[in-house]
Specification:
The chain is 31% helix and 28% strand. It is built from 7 helices and 10 strands. The strands form 2 sheets. A 7-stranded antiparallel sheet has the order 2-1-3-4-10-5-8, with no helix packed on it. Strands 7-6-9 form a 3-stranded antiparallel sheet, with no helix packed on it. The longest helix is centred in the first third of the chain and has 15 residues. It is elongated, with a radius of gyration of 23 Å.
Amino acid sequence: MTTGDLAGQEAEVAALLASVPAGTVAERLRRARLRQGLSVRKLASAARVDKGSVVRLEAGESVRPLTVLKVCQAMGIHVAALTKAADQGAVVRVHRAEAGEWHGLADLGGGPVTGATALTKILDSRLDGGSIMSNIVVVTAPTEGQAVAGEEFVYVLSGVLLLTVGGQEYELAVGDSACFWSSERHCYAPDAGSAGPVQFLCVTTHGRNR
């Protein structure tokens, strides 16, 4: 490839990249890498660029268009695929109110149940390859303690939630929320003085793979 050909390719890539925000390109590249099961180091090696260039690229920082071209070629995708209108099914997931089934909070893989003291409905609004899972949880009695890696956010929809994290109890009323490291042992309970069960939105994340 001549210097003129290379300059022409770089100019073409630069024009494509200028049509979308750098952060959009960064996230699309990161998702493509994760779908292919590649680490940053392996992708950099396959593309014959340094690891730092891939890190900067996925952070939305400025890199040479030629670097983007090499990374795309290493993954077998065209640069234009990063800049075209997104497939809405891939970037947005909607859960309808009537969808989903209730499962026991302590046994999500046990199939739909009714009558348990702690029920959860896993919402379908979860992105493929994403790190966020959202559920609606209904608790009528104290749950057993648990600890899993990641972060957790809860928002009370009805009733009063007694949230215990690391041995410390927090009382949350309707509209109250809390965020905590879910690797700390935690459990839920309805307030004894409440008229009925407590219902809350629970959002968990297990972070990003690198």
